[in-house]
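Incident log, entry 3
Record: Carboxylesterase (217 residues)
Problem: checksum mismatch between cached and fresh output.
Input:
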Amino acid sequence: MIDLYPQGARHAVIWLHGLGDSGAGLAPLVDALDMPADLPVRHLLPDAPERPITINMGYKMRGWYDIKSFEDPAERAVESHVRESASQINTLLDQLVAEGFAPEHIVLAGFSQGGVIASFTALRYQAQLAGLLCMSTYLAAPDKLADEMSEAARSLPICYMHGIYDDVVSLSLGWDAKNRLEEIGLAPEWHEYPMRHEICRPQLGDIRSWLLARLGA
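Fresh output:
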């Protein structure tokens, strides 16, 4: 795990990478945000474990969970793996709190698979976080969310970002996540960009502005 911990940081962002990537793969994103020097933020970029991925012919790669099929919602994210990964991130959140970071000063962010785990974890975490940022992603076990969502998550600031031309996680899956969150009383912010399954330059400015608003600047 990469842990960028500037002196005096009282806020933290946990960044969860996508399938086949690593924490190091998201480090350039953190650099590109160019957060203000007078708001030191700790950035943690953990690595998913290596596991066989069914849709990739069973090849082993870093993945927060296996994907058996994108066609069947039940096979889009193997739930047992999702819960294992979410438990790991939940433990990381608890460790940050034990080190003195207030939950309301912690943002959980993720891209693609990482966004699935970020949302699954944040929406069930027992203390309210500063925010949830989900990029080019979807929900795992959406039908169970209403029963499992924590009371703290009811006022959680949420932002979804998605590429209009995403050919890996279709825009419709992002819209489905947004609509399902609205159906249970949440109010996710939504941004679309003329891009594929990636992060674009205009999006960086929006991420930066959203983080600054969440972290008290």
